[in-house]
């Protein structure tokens, strides 16, 4: 059983800040600075080029992929780290489309993260083969799975509302219709229990800078089902996905299994941060994490709803249908969030009217939730969003 | 005039090592450790999510792109940093192909880096529109430029031999034939004078971990000519290339100019290292660098040829046709390089028989060249490559 009072002590949290934005960018693990400094000074500095072997830089995308795999229900050898999430979405979707050459419909929902949709649009335009990206409301996805479907492409947890799709059910429906199921775990990995193998998902992608706490610009990951890993075509066929990168052959031959989903040179400094973050995750029981996440989000919803009648819950009330965040709609949400941030409660705002709060049991506890609720209540009850200082236009949040 | 004795002091070079592999991975700038630590501790640690604005993480791909632009003949606003070089090759080629929809031939040479060729193969297979990747010998490129050509896709300096293409001439030939010219500057940026605007190149890509010294896994960059930047379609249409990423619209609208070539979240820790590296480059006169590079490579060739008759020069003898590296062919090259490395002269080996040495005036001087020549001469004259310890199979070099 994970002791979350101990994990909280493993993070540097700014003085006076209740950080409810770990679903956007996780905070700094205390060991990360030294871990990164070791890579910079002892490895890059002293080993230079030989670090690729001696410090095992080249192996890290796979070894760290396996450690992420444990958190998302993937057996070792089926996850590899690299690139950004947008690139991994493109890579997975391109491979998925290849598996169903006679079908043209890619189904997603309007709660998917825009970049996933944009990458799909770009791929479809490049292919010029008549594919259609069908974007439906989240609750209508199941009804749109039919025998035309090529790929079901969803983000499991809606970035705005925290609404969670039933991965097992929708994957099974997609398979019954002869389609491929591809999941974005951006708001799932490290947020809840994921069982990719148990759900028989075909592809999954995710990022490591949110719940996994690997820092700004941390790399993404990709999972390919064992059913496809040895045969799938990597559309982004980079040299490090080659069977023998250092043979420098002129012809591409895909590497074994998931290795073929590597593309270019791994981001070694970002991987050092990921290593530090995963060292915490290696000891976490995901079932205990999920229970604690639900306890915190329930506590928060009950507290805010009691104190702030103007805030309308945008997340599902049923915790089984909710990820590890809670969102409220409020027309003055941007300014209200600025007022909260000024008082030390850091959530974020998503246009047009969503105030979003992430609950991350590794470093947020019941006392934080109580304190956050009290500050949000003060902001709402005193109408602090009316103050001109909080009204400026959103830039990056 | 750049004082190269001063720049040498700006790098950490391992004790007893003559590092002739800066063309593969540049060494650690002395300020990098503190610069990265600042980003980790003061920015990620203290600002967390607000670092995207307060520490200007979001702006860095453009501001650092401009600083690289100065080194390669690009005006501000035409270079952006991100992803790996392989991804940037794919991105540039996909956009280039779009500009010449009625043509099907992509011409490259067998001296191009394999990953560029692999990425092109992968893109062509995805497109399934009958494109052909024509791979010719480097010296035959000009003769193969004809009215069928869609895209001329070359790496300016051959990674094995250091042979340099005439960018101005070949770009002009491509344009005369109605084709697009795309250049990979992996072994050019920071190695020699590049004038993208003067050559009227259409696209260029490059990496920052070689001559630019930004560390293992440092990001790539992409240049798009002002003639195309405002109209080109970004095939990898990620959210940070959107006109308004934080509006979270469901439809993709490309950002202004080069901004549309951004894809996903910038690698902030790697960018901190790049910032440290560029702080050195900001003061370098590229003409002086090129003169010094030629002086060092000439000194090295004369020295090695005099002492090592078994080594066959694989690089052009004319410095005007050579990048900033010198390569020799030798059947026992792998073992001979291991023997050199064991004696502190670090170059690298490229299959099947290339011993490769990079000359980087920022931290390699005439004394280093003399010392390296003496050690290589000892290895060759004493046939040290025969020692079993040096005979093991190449892994990563």
TrEMBL record, chains A, B:
Cofactor: pyridoxal 5'-phosphate
GO CC annotation terms, alphabetical: cytoplasm
Pathways involved: Amino-acid degradation; L-kynurenine degradation; L-alanine and anthranilate from L-kynurenine: step 1/1; Cofactor biosynthesis; NAD(+) biosynthesis; quinolinate from L-kynurenine: step 2/3
Single GO BP term: quinolinate biosynthetic process
Catalytic activity from the UniProt record: L-kynurenine + H2O = anthranilate + L-alanine + H(+); 3-hydroxy-L-kynurenine + H2O = 3-hydroxyanthranilate + L-alanine + H(+)
Keywords: Hydrolase, Pyridine nucleotide biosynthesis, Pyridoxal phosphate
Gene Ontology molecular function: kynureninase activity; pyridoxal phosphate binding
Positions of pyridoxal 5'-phosphate binding: 85-86, 113-116, 155, 184, 187, 209, 239, 265
N6-(pyridoxal phosphate)lysine, modified sites: 210
Entry EC no(s): 3.7.1.3
InterPro entries: Kynureninase, PyrdxlP-dep_Trfase, PyrdxlP-dep_Trfase_major, PyrdxlP-dep_Trfase_small
HAMAP family from the UniProt entry: Kynureninase
Quaternary assembly: Homodimer.
Free-text function comment from the UniProt entry: Catalyzes the cleavage of L-kynurenine (L-Kyn) and L-3-hydroxykynurenine (L-3OHKyn) into anthranilic acid (AA) and 3-hydroxyanthranilic acid (3-OHAA), respectively.
NCBIfam families in UniProt: kynureninase
This protein's name: Kynureninase
């Amino acid at each position: 059983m994970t002791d979350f009072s101990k994990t909280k002590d493993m993070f540097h949290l700014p003085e006076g800040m209740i950080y409810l934005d770990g679903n956007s960018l996780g905070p700094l693990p205390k060991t990360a600075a030294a871990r990164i400094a070791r890579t910079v000074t002892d490895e890059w500095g002293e080993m230079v080029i030989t670090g690729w072997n001696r410090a095992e830089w080249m192996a890290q995308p796979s070894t760290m992929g396996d450690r992420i795999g444990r958190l998302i229900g993937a057996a070792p050898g089926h996850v590899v780290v690299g690139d950004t999430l947008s690139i991994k979405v493109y890579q997975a979707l391109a491979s998925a489309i290849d598996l169903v050459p006679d079908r043209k419909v890619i189904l997603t929902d309007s709660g998917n993260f825009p970049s996933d949709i944009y990458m799909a649009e770009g791929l479809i335009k490049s292919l010029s083969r008549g594919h259609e990206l069908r974007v439906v409301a989240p609750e209508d996805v199941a009804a749109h799975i039919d025998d035309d479907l090529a790929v079901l492409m969803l983000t499991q947890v809606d970035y705005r509302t925290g609404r969670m799709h039933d991965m097992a059910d929708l994957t099974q429906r997609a398979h019954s219709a002869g389609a491929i199921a591809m999941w974005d775990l951006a708001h799932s990995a490290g947020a809840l229990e994921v069982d990719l193998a148990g759900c028989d998902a075909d592809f999954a992608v995710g990022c490591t800078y949110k719940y996994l706490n690997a820092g700004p610009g941390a790399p993404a990951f990709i999972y390919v089902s064992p059913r496809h890993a040895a045969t799938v075509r990597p559309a982004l066929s980079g040299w490090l996905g080659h069977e023998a990168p250092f043979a420098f052959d002129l012809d591409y031959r895909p590497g074994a299994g998931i290795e073929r989903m590597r593309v270019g040179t791994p981001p070694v400094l970002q991987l050092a941060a990921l290593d530090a973050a995963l060292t915490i995750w290696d000891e976490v029981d995901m079932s205990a994490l999920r229970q604690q996440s639900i306890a915190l989000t329930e506590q928060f919803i009950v507290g805010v709803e009691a104190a702030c009648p103007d805030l309308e819950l945008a997340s599902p009330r049923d915790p089984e249908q909710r990820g590890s965040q809670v969102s409220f709609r409020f027309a003055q949400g941007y300014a209200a969030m600025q007022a909260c941030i000024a008082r030390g409660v850091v959530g974020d705002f998503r246009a047009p009217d969503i105030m979003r709060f992430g609950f991350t049991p590794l470093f947020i506890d019941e006392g934080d939730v109580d304190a956050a609720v009290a500050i949000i209540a003060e902001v709402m009850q005193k109408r602090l969003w009316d103050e001109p200082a909080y009204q400026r236009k959103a830039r990056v949040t």
